[in-house]
Amino acid sequence: MQEDKAPMTSDHSKLKIPHVLTVAGSDSGAGAGIQADIKACAARGVYCSTVITAVTAQNTVGVQGVNVVPEDFVGEQLKSVLSDMEVDVVKTGMLPSIGIVNVLNQSLREFPVQALVVDPVMVSTSGDVLAGPSILAGFREDLLPLADIITPNLKEASALLGGQQLETVSDMRSAAKLLHDMGPRNVLVKGGDLPDSLDAVDVFFDGQDFYELRSSRIKTRNTHGTGCSLASCIAAELAKGSPMLQAVKVAKRHVESGLDYSKDFVIGNGVQGPFDLLFRLKSYAQNSWRQVGFNPNDLFLYAVTDSRMNKKWGRSITDAVGAAIEGGATIVQLREKDVETQGFLEAAKACLKICRSHGIPLLINDRIDVAIACDADGVHVGQSDMPARIARTLLGPEKIIGVSCKTPEQAHQAWIDGADYIGCGGVYPTNTKENNLTVGLDGLKAVCVASKLPVVAIGGISASNACSVMQIGVPNLKGVAVVSTLFDRESILTATRELHVVLQEAASMSVQRTH
Ligand SMILES: Cc1ncc(COP(=O)(O)OP(=O)(O)O)c(N)n1
Ligand SMILES: Cc1nc(C(=O)O)sc1CCOP(=O)(O)O
Ligand SMILES: [Mg+2]
After folding, report:
1. Averaged over 203-218, what is the pLDDT?
2. What does each C-alpha distance from 337 to 163, 263, 304, 312 come to in angstroms?
3. Does the pTM of the predicted model rise above 0.80?
4. How far apart are the first and last CA of the chain?
5. Among 71, 214, 272, 419, whose Cα sits 20 to 30 Å from the Cα of 167?
6. C-alpha distance from residue 287 to each of 266, 290, 293, 334, 353 (Å)
7. Closest protein CA for atom 7 of ligand 2
8. How far is residue 28's CA from residue 171's CA, in Å, rounded to a whole number?
9. Confidence at residue 281, expressed as pLDDT on a 0 to 100 scale
10. Are 355 and 321 spatial neighbours (Cβ–Cβ below 8 Å)?
């Protein structure tokens, strides 16, 4: 042992991460199996280790091949993880041989865990058989009695019950009861394939009470992996310490949202596509997988909307935003102070469409919730709004965050908090924002000089004074943000064009000065 190395410590009290071990097959198409389990646990914020029982060649068409991992090596993987890594919950998926069922059984007796979730995978959703009838006996005799919950679909429940037909919710209740008699402490019979059912109904039985868990049926071909993901979400919630029914309900809701978010994905040519539980992929649904990121030059002509002005001139917010973009606005902020949340969200979605079609970023003033709900490009917050640091946590690393600052200290804090730019004002007195402190050109300059972030000037700026603002001679002042100059005018298009011309002239003058 090297003398200068710090001794290993076994102090695990620092942060115990909930841990699910999934014992399942690999799905090369990554919709189901081990891949789905890892995604589900990640989405639920739980660590996931893996024991691979088989490697399958599969895609959206079906299963083309299965290579079963020798049972000794499954045992070796189980021992590696269970002997060392403090697993809370074991979740099983594809167990393709009776030998593997036996090895698992022995391992669980040697290394007991808090809970065992058994998803009795036998037939893939494409109809391919993943575990033959010989395994049924192993399931029934060895695994079900150890399980805290089993999660069969209708076909699997029927197979475990010797081929009994299950066609109604009442059949599902009887099946849940019979399966419960085989030893598991809880049973969830999934009714996704129930004929003539408008809702998706699952029956949960805890040995005493039945619960019919209903949700609306989401029309999509992308359902491959829902079973594995549901069982993994249940395991993840149990690992966090949730009671069983609560874990099942949360998992079901999570899978439903995943189905909804990924319902329009086009992956593969087969009849059944994968769905994805990593919600951030939802932005794919809006085609916003374009490269994202903040370009400080976008602050050049920053249009900030105002619902009162639109009302006064009798125009819709979408017309206002469209005209500002046509006139040369390079970024748009929706600052709708007196609209209700639902109206704001609808307006934001409509404006986002227009902005995306022109490659113009759209930010939301104050309302992080609305920005998240419509997947806007970012937010602008002031000193008494949601702190930028928290906004960053909520919005993630890619979204744009702007912060209003009137002093160098605030500018420094905005940088520490992970903001992308600073809005500094009021440069001049303004009627748009009540009781706004005017900092003047000197105040603007002091903030720009202190700021490590790009700055946009705001407050009382118009085509007649924008040139003086841009000429204060600091390289990180990137543009002006304006409300009334654009939106309290008869023609937004003309007003934006006028300001754009002035800003371009100011920019070319500053280029001439530096040469
Ligand atoms: C670009 C830009 N700069 C400053 C502000 C003002 O934000 P805030 O101080 O939060 O005031 P309200 O706009 O919320 O009244 C801004 N909106 N945009
Ligand atoms: C929204 C806002 N913030 C300001 C600040 O000083 O932070 S001034 C302001 C209003 C800007 O409107 P107009 O362009 O009509 O003067
Ligand atoms: Mg604000």
Report:
1. 92
2. 62, 34, 12, 15
3. no
4. 64
5. 272
6. 12, 7, 15, 21, 10
7. 425
8. 35
9. 58
10. yes
Does 155 qualify as catalytic in the annotation? no
**Per-residue pLDDT band at 136 (split at 50, 70, 90):** confident
- The number of beta carbons lying within 10 Å of the beta carbon of residue 435 is 4
Atom 10 in ligand 1: residue holding the nearest Cα: 382
Q: Which of 225, 327, 423, 459 is catalytic?
A: 225
Q: What contacts 276, CB < 8 A, 6 or more positions away?
A: 39, 258, 261, 262, 265
Please pick, among 22, 50, 92, 226, the residue that the annotation labels catalytic: 226
Q: Is 22 a catalytic residue?
A: no
CATH topology of domain 296-514: TIM Barrel (3.20.20)
* β-pair type (19-27, 199-205): unpaired
Which is more confident, 289 or 367? 367
In sequence order, what are the beta bridge partners of 213? 202
**ipTM computed for the complex:** 0.99
Order the strands of the 210-216 sheet from edge to edge. 63-68, 47-58, 19-27, 89-92, 115-118, 149-150, 187-190, 199-205, 210-216
Please confirm, yes or no, whether 79 is among the known catalytic residues. no
Mean pLDDT of all residues in 484-507: 97
Q: Which of 50, 56, 223, 432 is catalytic?
A: 223
Which residues is 457 bridged to in the sheet?
A: 424, 480
| Whether 337 is catalytic | no
pLDDT of residue 275: 82
Write down the residue that tokens 């594995």 correspond to: 228
Burial class (CB in 10 A: 0-12, 13-18, 19+), 364: buried
What residue spans define the domains of the chain?
A: 19-279, 296-514
Pocket of ligand 2 (CB under 6 A): 404, 423, 425-426, 430, 432-433, 436, 458-461, 482-485
Phi-psi region of 195 (alpha: psi -120 to 50; beta: other; left: phi over 0): beta
The answer to whether domain 19-279 and domain 296-514 are alike in fold is no
Whole-angstrom distance, CA of residue 91 vs CA of residue 225: 15
